[in-house]
């Protein structure tokens, strides 16, 4: 089944973005929804070993023709959810199908073998959700201990065929060299964040009353400069991290 997708009009623009991404010869780079192969071709020209994933059999036929006898581009005709991520270091540079952006980004970033770096062409709204801009989201709070997020380029609608009806950006995601949450703590941290985002009622003070006393919440709010009546999206990532460290030390969660 083909996915609705907006393809790049200008190969020169793609080339400039890939040059800026500093893809090095020998890098393994994943291109999800490879389409007509514009990104894959420029990645290969930069010396990368490309893993091109495409579900549409007609586009796969074109890709196989375009990269016939090219040992540096490997083509996979399957849904990305059925694709096995590399167990060795790799990067991602891709123009994602907008309708499945959240699904595919979740697969990439929550995987044990997540990418060292990813450049994703996505809707601006999705990029803001992932990066916690201008307010943190459950997704951003879950992943910021492990990744940096930055919107680094704003596209024009005319950069694509067909033109998208929404604003589109390039989101850069970089794995932190040293995570802010250790691997043994990861499950506890994720459970806490999901609990806090999904059980708050009037505010977090009420939602977290089973794990943080009102007295302790007052102290946390004062020390970390947030409102007693803060909702999940009112807190910065640093404030979320400090709340988790508090309950972790107290073994409250």
UniProtKB/TrEMBL annotation:
Q: Kindly give the Gene3D superfamilies that the UniProt entry links to this protein.
A: Ribosomal RNA adenine dimethylase-like, domain 2, Vaccinia Virus protein VP39
Q: Which domain of life is it from?
A: Bacteria
Which residues bind S-adenosyl-L-methionine per the record? 6, 33, 54, 79, 95
Please give the InterPro entries that the UniProt record associates with this protein: KsgA/Erm, rRNA_Ade_diMease-like_C, rRNA_Ade_Mease_Trfase_CS, rRNA_Ade_methylase_Trfase_N, SAM-dependent_MTases_sf
Single GO molecular function: RNA binding
Q: Which residues form the Ribosomal RNA adenine methylase transferase N-terminal domain?
A: 13-177
What PROSITE patterns is this protein classified in?
RRNA_A_DIMETH (PS01131), SAM_RNA_A_N6_MT (PS51689)
Coiled coil (UniProt feature)? none
Q: Which UniProt keywords apply?
A: Methyltransferase, RNA-binding, S-adenosyl-L-methionine, Transferase
Among PANTHER family, the record links this protein to:
DIMETHYLADENOSINE TRANSFERASE, DIMETHYLADENOSINE TRANSFERASE-RELATED
Q: Would you identify the family this protein belongs to, as annotated?
A: Belongs to the class I-like SAM-binding methyltransferase superfamily. rRNA adenine N(6)-methyltransferase family.
Q: What is this protein called?
A: Ribosomal RNA adenine methylase transferase N-terminal domain-containing protein
Lineage, highest ranks first: Bacteria, Candidatus Gottesmaniibacteriota
